[in-house]
Amino acid sequence: MKVFNLKFLFLIGLSLTFSLKAMAQEEKKYKEVKRTFKSEIINVSADSLWAILREFDKVAHWTSALDHSEGVGESKFEGTTCNERVCEANKSRLVEKLTQFSDNDRELAYELTEGAPGFVKLATNHWTVHEIGPNQSEVRMDVTMHLSKFMGFFLGGAITKTMTKQILIVLNDLKVYAETGDVSEAKKAQIEKLSKKKK
Predict the structure, then answer these.
(1) In which domain, by residue range, is 93 found?
(2) b/e for 41-68, b at 16 or more Cβ within 10 A?
(3) Other CB atoms closer than 10 Å to residue 97's CB: what's the count?
(4) For all residues of the chain together, what is the average pLDDT?
């Protein structure tokens, strides 16, 4: 009886060991990168700031991080006009799908579904607008990326650096546009450059 119990316990222990190893391998299939960004205080009300950001498809109208953006697909969230947006930047094409949207909470989230390098397994961004004071607000961006383990090890730092640079451009352009009603100097220069190319 004791021998049977010992064998039984051994088999359970062996099974648990293999299960834990399998779970560990599953967890290590990708490198996760999480970053949170906050804008400077923007001197407009939270509602005014949200009125700009809620137009998911029009982001390229005011940021120099993108050349062009347009909405596609049937709206799946109340208050939206599209399901996805197609963005163009430096001859690259990106497709981002809305995964969350709320006018009441002043938040939206989206996932990059096309245009990422093969080693980027997941890329999401969650935007929330917060009231700071009378006619003062800020936007918070929570970014999550899953990179393939091997390439993530070598390129994770470079990808994070590039992402940070682009988001800071977006936040700076947003502040200018929200506070002045006019696009940033960088966006003006971009618009002029693109218009010359079309001629």
Answers:
(1) 28-194
(2) ebbbbbeebbebbbbbbbbbebbbbbbe
(3) 18
(4) 89
Residue 10, in any domain of the structure: no
- CATH number (domain holding residue 142): 3.30.530.20
Number of domains the chain is built from: 1
DSSP classification of residue 196: H
Between vectors from CA 139 to CA 138 and to CA 144, what angle results, nearest 5°? 150
pLDDT in tens, 145-183: 999 988 878 888 888 899 999 999 999 999 999 999 999
Place of tokens 């497709």: 95
On whether residue 1 sits in a domain, the answer given is no
16 within some domain: no
- The 3-state DSSP class for residue 54 equals coil
What's the rounded Cα separation, in Å, for the pair 73 and 76? 9
Q: Is the pLDDT score of 82 beyond 50?
A: yes
Report the predicted TM-score, pTM, of the whole model to 2 decimal places.
0.83
Q: Is residue 143 part of a domain?
A: yes
| Mean pLDDT along residues 118-141 | 96
CB atoms closer than 10 angstroms to residue 27: 9
Neighbours of 2 (CB within 10 A): 6
